[in-house]
Amino acid sequence: MNPVAIIAFVAGALVVARAILSALRTFVLPRASNDVVARTVFHATRRAFDVVAGPSKPYERRDRLMAYFGPVSLIVLPGTWIVIVIVGYTAMFWAIGVPIYEAFAASGSSLLTLGFVHPDLPGTDLLAFTEATIGLGLIALLISYLPTIYGAFSRRELLVNLLEVRADSPPSPLVLITRFHRLQGLAALGEMWERWEEWFSDVEETHTSLTVLVHYRSQQPDHSWVNAAGAMMDAAALVRSAVDVPMDVRADLMIRAGYLAVRRIAGFFRLPFDPNLPPGTPTSVDRGRFDAALEVLESAGVPLVADRDKAWRDFDGWRVNYDAALRGLERLTVAPTPWWERPMRSAWATDEPVAAEAAAHDIPVR
Questions:
Q1: 66-75, 264-273, 341-350: segment of lowest average pLDDT
Q2: SS in 3 state form for 158-216?
Q3: Burial 17-27 (b: 16+ CB within 10 A, else e)
Q4: d(CA 73, CA 55)
Q5: Shortest CA distance to 132 belongs to which of 114, 144, 146, 118?
């Protein structure tokens, strides 16, 4: 082979190797790997979806459209790998003497195991066999990992759906606390903290190794795993800072598991946040909203601590750990409006003001 053919063959082999590496990083590697091929595909697909599901659209329409983003991206990505492999093998077939169009046809025929093009040159059989193996492997990889993806999705959604029973939907920590206070007693929240600590650990592992899950939306338009995560951490932060009950270390552990999970998922998507912000840094929940939340809890009979200033400092000290990462994930996933930007109420308030505010924010109310 002449030097140009050698360069073309090596370049084609490297292109194919890069596609295989991308597939391994995306579906096989059991840790977060921000692969450039997968990232480019997801970004390009997201830009297309943002055009048709922009912020100017009503939330229900955006939710219906964005529900297709994760599955469509999951289909486009293997298609991209197939195109890359075809291009790489086309270069290798051409490098050993096959005319360019016939090289392209031979590459596509081999990858898809059609076999209708078979160049009669030395080395073409070996290239055809290896490309067919790669093509079958990529398809088998996608098919075999679909049950894994949907299994992780089902585990995530189990607690998200159950949270509606305890905290309404979209979930509110005020509804959760007042409902437990009246029905079971606040001590029963300890079991919730334990279950959600495990949930955060599972979500962190699955949503950084199978990142398409981040974009898989819940079955109901007013459900969101991001809203659920924020509501649970805020509920624990409110109990630990402002509710007059014995300290339960399980709440602290759940909050820590939560902010580590949302930080690592946000970090994978390169969402901006500072993990070392000092206590007192302003967050999305300001003092006025915090005081309004305490008024709702107090009116529902929840015992509160006397020192509201200290309670605010403690709550803000918890919230600062996850506020920026959580808000970034809300924007990334097009989540419904969070609880503190809607009317605050207990589990026993009427639904009329909630419905009015939901209509203003295009939030479906169940």
A1: 341-350
A2: HHHHHHHHHHCCCCCHHHHHHHHHHHCCHHHHHHHHHHHHHHHHHHHHHHHHCHHHHHC
A3: ebbbebbebbb
A4: 20
A5: 114
pLDDT of residue 354: 41
Which CA distances in Å does 209 have to 35, 125, 313, 364? 11, 36, 36, 31
- How far is Cα 299 from Cα 34, in angstroms, rounded to an integer? 48
Mean pLDDT of 167-195: 93
Q: How far is Cα 169 from Cα 330, in angstroms, rounded to an integer?
A: 16
Among candidate residues 285, 282, 256, the one with its CA nearest the CA of residue 173:
285
Q: If you average pLDDT over residues 136-162, what whole number do you get?
A: 89
The CA angle 324-275-189, to the nearest 5 degrees, is 70
| Residue 343, amino acid | P
- Least Cα distance to 171 among 324, 366, 17 occurs for 366
With beta carbons less than 8 A apart as the criterion, state whether 303 and 206 touch.
Answer: no
pLDDT digits (tens, 9 = 90+) for 286-326: 999 999 999 999 999 999 999 999 999 999 999 999 999 99
| Total-model pTM | 0.84
Residue 160: pLDDT band by 50, 70, 90 thresholds? very high
Tokens coding 90: 């086309």
**What is the SS3 assignment for the chain?**
CCHHHHHHHHHHHHHHHHHHHHHHHHHHCCCCCCCHHHHHHHHHHHHHHHHHCCCCCCHHHHHHHHCCHHHHHHHHHHHHHHHHHHHHHHHHHHHCCCCHHHHHHHHHHHHCCCCCCCCCCCCHHHHHHHHHHHHHHHHHHHHHHHHHHHHHHHHHHHHHHHHHHHHCCCCCHHHHHHHHHHHCCHHHHHHHHHHHHHHHHHHHHHHHHCHHHHHCCCCCCCCCHHHHHHHHHHHHHHHHHHECCCCCHHHHHHHHHHHHHHHHHHHHCCCCCCCCCCCCCCCCCCHHHHHHHHHHHHHCCCCECCCHHHHHHHHHHHHCCCHHHHHHHHHHHCCCCCHHHCCCCCCCCCCHHHHHHHHHCCCCCC
Q: How far apart are CA 98 and CA 103, in angstroms?
A: 5
